[in-house]
Design goal:
Number of helices of chain B: 17
Largest sheet of chain A: 7 strands, antiparallel
Structural class of chain B: alpha+beta
Number of strands of chain B: 35
Shape of chain B: globular
Distance between the termini of chain A: 68 Å
Strand content of chain A: 15-25%
Helix content of chain B: 25-40%
Distance between the termini of chain B: 67 Å
Number of helices of chain A: 13
Structural class of chain A: alpha+beta
Number of strands of chain A: 20
Radius of gyration of chain A: 25 Å
Strand order of the largest sheet of chain A: 2-1-5-4-3-6-7
Largest sheet of chain B: 8 strands, mixed
Strand order of the largest sheet of chain B: 19-14-13-22-23-35-34-31
Radius of gyration of chain B: 26 Å
Helix content of chain A: 25-40%
Oligomer: heterodimer
Shape of chain A: globular
């Protein structure tokens, strides 16, 4: 590539980024309700004619390793010679895309003068896919819903009516399901038109050469970032509650010059409930953390993770054998991010953060009926704290590693008959450290009337977010009903007057608490982020210092 | 004073009476004055610190020099002062009274963050935790009282507030959007206890559900109120002292004006008034020029703003944010639930810095050299290459005629700065400058296209109305990228916001979270809510005069999260009933999404009411158009992306007359901006003095 071409490359690269963003907006606007309700739980991407990922919309990290693999699977089933203008491919195979049946991937080949020049693809969460509904307690994937093998949804522009009737017959909300699917298709159509226009404007035959250059640059940038890490093999173990037995993820990360190998051999075996996580999803969250630490600002394409190789033995909880149940794979998948973090914290401490609450947020599905018999359903999401950063405290009550918005209390109370009596930062929940972990929260609510099933989805009731470099762990999470601790991942029945206390875990601390700036610590005590007792016990503050600070503030 | 002289003052000679717009920006304070017959005067002075009133008085004196301030009937004022107080965190020592158990709402926010940035920070809560005081009270979502307001807890909060040294108080209780009874009672109790501090009730400002956003709005109002009140009172006194005896209005963020007292009570509503004023001139211009749609495009030093305007008015949004992160990502700043002009903002301005990223490729922005240190070519400017430096290297700007020659730009420093990115890229200075110019246009293009896409607008049918210092420099190239064929540079492009102040109607917009499924009986309830909202709006503009009423309902299918704005006629509401509301919703829905769904129920999630008392017409003189070819003042080489150098003729805008035609390549230099006319583009000065550029090949 000549020097002058770098400007042209930047412009085309930017355009491809804009095209996938516009595909995402089109999908969001045209989609019926599930997509917008789960806003952000989808992604769109453009590939060149050979299936090389060129550009992907920013969405949830869970999609960071979805569309690349799925397009390869599509090609394996339908080689380019078997594709023609107007075809649209589909699958929801959890092992081929992002880990559960509710994610529907489609791809639309784009032709120019008879040649396959690009693919527009998207993967989008459907609220229902039949089976027992999105739950973690199925015993195999058959029970979890309808499985769609790789098929043509459209053949040469014509709907595959046989397939449509099977889909419509098997889901609970067919209008919404088909509406969202058609939105995925029309968004891909819009992208096809834009790709054709782009090729025309820049007088390109195809995207191969430009794509090659984009991927090489992204790959080189990633390789440069890896080269800055010292060679060697580094090990980290992450433990979490799991189903009934604790789960271990064992990671051996090897840095070899400009490439990485992440070997998860030695991790726990697959389990009997749906918290098994397919490799694509496990890799997505590991990739997320690599990118966030090593090259957060770089656009994502095929080259970005080319220097990264994974070893995930079959039969482990992050590579379960078909037909293992996988619906709640996120409860496990998010922890691969923390395993990567544990290793990187040792190698480049100034560019990382301590563990975050993550799955230790107070997440509850609340389904029930009001007094008048009408039904309600709500995912009540109360995030815990972010880990302390290498240069600053963690942020309180924030979603991580995904990035989702919670629903305001006022809206919650308008949807279901509860009163949230308390929703406050929890004193001492952040792991003590030179930089303190972000605080978790304490939520107290009461069922006012009607009847309600509460399905807990809390992790970290036994294993808190770790602190790094002398930082201490954050507090654990907890679920209690009427003053008694209950199982954090089971279904519980609530009657009017019952009250629930849910604790969202705090983030881990970073650096020794003894090194915390005294002024910051005293602010913490004054503002109630840290209790006086903890300031003395964990941070080594003397009662003398505490007293004089109080006097000074009073003056 | 003899009665005769009073009479004379009230019925002055028609010609000598002025309406005057004063817009205070970060760098300049702009003035526009008009007479009923359409004479317009404009001027600009440097904004004075620490007291901007000095600059206002100086500028006004210059503007109405022979007549004096007594010749002004009507002042409309817009200012960035409130926004600056928030951005620089220089507001009052504020205390928040909140519902027991809910004191951390401001700090817990909404759970979102910036996806890949592990080191991201939110701006600190405006009211820190030890100044957030809990009150024993609770309403249910229905608005019913669950726990009555405990008098003693107000007394105890007041004791703490006094001990803390509070200067301003905000009160925000859960579900007060539904029933303000406890907030009002708390206010009364505080007054009874002898509290004379300004007190903001959230329920007076925002009728919308969502405790974080509503609390944030209330505390920001309380935070800026003391300083804004003091400033407005000082300004009014100085104006009156200078002989001004007319009406004093403030520009608000929704594009309407209101009496000064309303702004003193709700200063949070003036925060986005500057951009609003600029965009309403675009609506007025579109109406006058018979354009159905236009994009207002305002490119300044740090950001560019774009707004899809209809000839019937500017679009509004219910919420916006201030103090967002550098990428202006949603959910990173302080949200404000006050209606404002629905515009998009992108970190692309004259000061945007060009840099080389980790991939070895060029990037422009979002970091900006701003006005301090400013672009490298400015006196005292920085070392980083900026868009303005690139534009100077490309010959698009005239180093000796920037701001009409008030600032002398350094060609040498611009060259040196651009060279810092040209060298590592292996480009010549010119090539690098072309690339910077093109990339900033690409960034703006992307933002405008997404903004349009979200709103279902087809850009090809729009005209681009360009203003702001850098707007007309980039508009032609941007229009090409957007597939737009007409660019308009308004006659007063340099003082657009001040002009907007005189175009804005006396109006008020209020909203409520009225939520109900559309079924029998709903129309009567909506009608009664609309009546309440209308009275609230009229109170706020201190007017009971004849007015126009515009009503919108935010509606959606049950189960959806996105809604559409559905306009309806309040006077026919009851007659049309629920069926009428559903019909209007489906018509609007089909317009956006091309299909409706007869099986699904429909609900209302909020109501919006706008009352407009009068819309001033800024007299624009239109003159007959005769063709003419103006004289160029010179020639220079200009370079645009994707083309070779052109020898371009240089014109002064002041030399152009109605009907003047110019064929590109050319440059038209205005006092506060420069209009770049690319090869193949042509301009004509229309009957109103606007420059209309045709971009289509």
């Amino acid at each position: 590539m000549s020097r002058i071409d770098s400007v042209r490359l930047r412009v085309i690269w930017g355009r491809l980024g804009a095209i996938v963003e516009e595909q995402a907006v089109t999908l969001l606007r045209a989609g019926f309700s599930s997509i917008v309700n789960q806003a952000g739980d989808f992604s769109c991407a453009v590939f060149d004619g050979a299936g090389t990922l060129l550009s992907q919309s920013a969405g949830t990290p869970g999609q960071l390793h979805t569309l690349g693999p799925v397009v390869r699977h599509f090609f394996r089933r339908f080689p380019p010679a078997e594709l023609r203008e107007g075809d649209v491919l589909i699958t929801n195979d959890p092992w081929k895309q992002s880990g559960h049946l509710n994610d529907i991937a489609i791809a639309r080949p784009i032709f120019l003068k008879g040649h396959l020049v690009a693919i527009a693809a998207s993967c989008c969460h459907a609220a229902d896919i039949g089976g027992r509904g999105l739950a973690s307690d199925a015993s195999d994937v058959y029970e979890e819903g309808l499985q769609i093998p790789i098929l043509k949804l459209f053949v040469g522009g014509q709907r595959n009516e046989d397939l449509f009737s099977i889909l419509i017959e098997n889901v609970r909300m067919p209008d919404e399901f088909v509406g969202d699917l058609m939105a995925q298709v029309s968004a891909a159509d819009v992208t096809a038109a834009k790709i054709e226009k782009l090729l025309g404007e820049f007088e390109l035959e195809n995207l191969a050469e430009v794509g090659q250059a984009m991927c090489t640059l992204a790959e080189n940038a990633m390789r440069d970032a890896i080269r800055a890490l010292p060679n060697g093999t580094y090990v980290d173990d992450v433990y979490f509650d799991g189903a009934d037995e604790p789960v271990q993820l064992h990671l051996a990360l090897t840095v070899e010059d400009d490439s990485l190998q992440l070997d998860f051999t030695g991790s726990s075996r697959q389990v009997s409930i749906g918290i098994n996580c397919v490799p694509n999803y496990a890799m997505a969250y590991a990739n997320f953390m690599l990118k966030a630490v090593l090259c957060p600002e770089l656009p994502h394409n095929e080259g970005t993770f080319a220097p990264v190789r994974y070893v995930i033995p079959e039969g482990t909880i992050i590579n379960p054998r078909y037909p293992a149940p996988v619906a709640a794979r996120h409860l496990t998948g998010h922890f691969t991010a923390f395993a990567v973090l544990g290793v990187l914290a040792r190698l480049i401490p100034d560019r990382v953060m301590a563990d975050s609450a993550g799955g230790g947020s107070a997440v509850m599905q609340l389904n029930g009926t009001r007094e008048d018999g009408s039904p309600f359903a709500l995912l009540f999401f109360n995030p815990g704290g972010l880990g302390a950063r290498a240069n600053d405290d963690g942020i309180p009550t924030v979603s991580f590693p995904p990035n989702r918005w919670n629903i305001p209390v006022e809206v919650v109370e308008n949807i279901l008959p509860i009163a949230v009596l308390e929703k406050e930062l929890l004193t001492d929940s952040g792991g003590p450290g030179k930089f303190r972990g972000g605080l978790g929260q304490r939520v107290v609510f009461r069922l006012l009337s009607g009847h309600c099933w509460l399905s807990g989805m809390l992790e970290r009731t036994k294993y808190p977010a770790r602190g790094f470099w002398g930082g201490l762990p954050g507090c654990t999470s907890e679920l209690a009903i009427n003053g008694e601790t209950v199982h954090p991942k089971k279904r519980h029945e609530l009657f009017p007057g019952d009250w629930v206390v849910a604790i969202a875990a705090g983030g881990g601390g970073f650096g020794s608490p003894k090194d915390r700036l005294r002024s910051r610590l005293l602010d913490d005590v004054r503002l109630g982020y840290v209790s006086a007792t903890a300031a003395i016990v964990d941070y080594g503050l003397t009662t003398e210092e505490l007293r004089s600070a109080r006097d000074a503030h009073r003056d | 004073m003899p009665a005769a002289s009073v009479t004379e003052r009230r019925t002055p000679p028609h010609e000598a009476r002025f309406r005057c717009g004063i817009d205070i920006g970060g760098t300049f304070t702009d003035f526009v004055a008009t007479t009923p017959s359409g004479t317009t005067r404009a001027t600009k002075v440097l904004t004075t610190y620490p007291s901007p009133v000095d600059g206002v008085m100086a500028g006004l004196a210059e503007l109405v020099a022979p007549e004096g301030l007594s010749a002004i009937d009507h002042v409309v004022h817009g200012t960035t002062l409130a926004a600056n107080l928030v951005l620089e965190r220089k507001g009052a020592h504020t205390v928040l009274l909140t519902t027991m158990g809910m004191r951390d709402v401001l700090e817990m926010r909404r759970g979102n963050r910036v996806l890949y940035d592990l080191f991201f920070k939110f701006p600190p809560p405006i009211v820190p935790r030890d100044r957030r005081l809990e009150v024993n009270e609770r309403l249910l979502a229905t608005g019913e009282v669950m726990r009555p307001l405990e008098q003693e807890s107000i007394a105890s909060a007041w004791r703490k507030a006094e001990a803390i040294g509070a200067q301003s108080i905000a009160i925000c209780f859960l579900h007060a959007y539904k029933n303000p009874i406890h907030e009002r009672r708390a206010l009364q109790l505080l007054r009874d206890l002898g509290c004379t501090l300004p007190i903001t009730l959230a329920s007076d400002i925002s009728g919308e559900m969502g405790e974080f956003e509503r609390t944030s709005t209330a505390v920001i109002n309380a935070y800026v109120q003391p300083a804004i009140s003091a400033y407005l009172r000082e300004l009014a006194e100085r104006l009156n002292g200078g002989g001004f005896a007319g009406d004093f209005y403030m520009m608000l963020s929704h594009g309407g004006i209101a009496p000064r007292g309303t702004a003193e009570q709700f200063p949070v509503r003036v925060i986005e008034s500057g951009p609003a004023a600029g965009m309403i001139t675009v609506a007025e211009l579109a109406a006058r020029m018979n354009l159905e749609h236009a994009i207002g495009f305002d490119m300044g030093g740090t950001t560019a703003k774009a707004c899809l305007v209809a000839a019937t008015g500017v679009p509004l949004r219910a919420t916006f944010e201030i103090a967002q992160g550098q990428d202006l990502e949603r959910g990173t700043g302080y949200p404000l639930n006050v209606p404002s002009v629905d515009l998009t903002e992108v970190g692309a301005g004259g000061g945007s810095i060009a840099w080389i990223d980790r991939l070895g490729l060029l990037q422009v922005g979002p970091r900006s050299a701003g006005s301090s240190p400013g672009p490298a070519c400015y006196p005292g400017g920085g070392d980083d290459p900026t868009v303005t430096d690139a534009d100077l290297v490309l010959g698009l700007l005239n180093a000796e005629y920037f701001l009409g020659g008030k600032i002398l730009l350094s060609q040498k420093r611009a060259d040196a700065a651009v060279a810092t990115v040209a060298r590592p890229l292996g480009l010549s200075q010119l090539q690098a400058a072309q690339a910077i110019h093109d990339l900033v246009n690409e960034n703006m293009c992307r933002a405008v296209r997404l903004h349009a896409l979200y709103r279902g607008a087809e850009l090809a049918r729009y005209a681009l109305v360009a203003f702001g210092g850098a707007g007309p420099v980039h508009a032609g190239q941007l229009a090409e990228k957007l597939g737009i064929s007409t660019v308009i540079v308004p006659r007063l492009a340099g003082v657009q916001s001040a002009e907007g102040l005189l175009t804005a109607p006396l109006s008020m917009t209020v909203a409520s979270s009225f939520a109900a499924p559309v079924q029998n009986g709903v129309a009567v309830r909506v009608a009664s809510e609309i009546t309440d909202l209308r009275h609230r709006a009229l109170d706020l503009i201190r007017s009971g005069a004849e007015h126009e009423l515009t009503s919108f309902a935010q509606m959606r299918y049950l189960g959806q999260s996105h809604y559409v704005d559905v306009p309806f006629d309040a006077s026919r509401l009851v007659a049309e009933g629920a069926a009428g509301l559903r019909r209007r919703f489906e018509r609007e829905y089909a317009r956006h999404f091309l299909r409706t769904n007869a099986q699904v129920g429909v609900e209302i999630v909020a109501l919006n009411v706008q009352v407009t008392v009068h819309t001033p017409t800024l007299a624009h003189t239109s003159r007959a158009v005769g063709r003419s070819s103006p004289m160029a003042v010179g020639e220079r080489m200009i370079h645009l992306p994707g083309s070779d150098a052109f020898r371009a003729r240089v014109f002064r805008r002041s030399d152009l007359s109605i009907g003047s035609e110019i064929v590109g390549p050319a440059v038209i230099e205005d006092v506060s901006t420069t209009i770049v006319v690319g090869a193949g583009h042509r301009t004509v000065t229309d009957e109103w003095g606007n420059i209309v550029m045709t971009v289509a090949p």
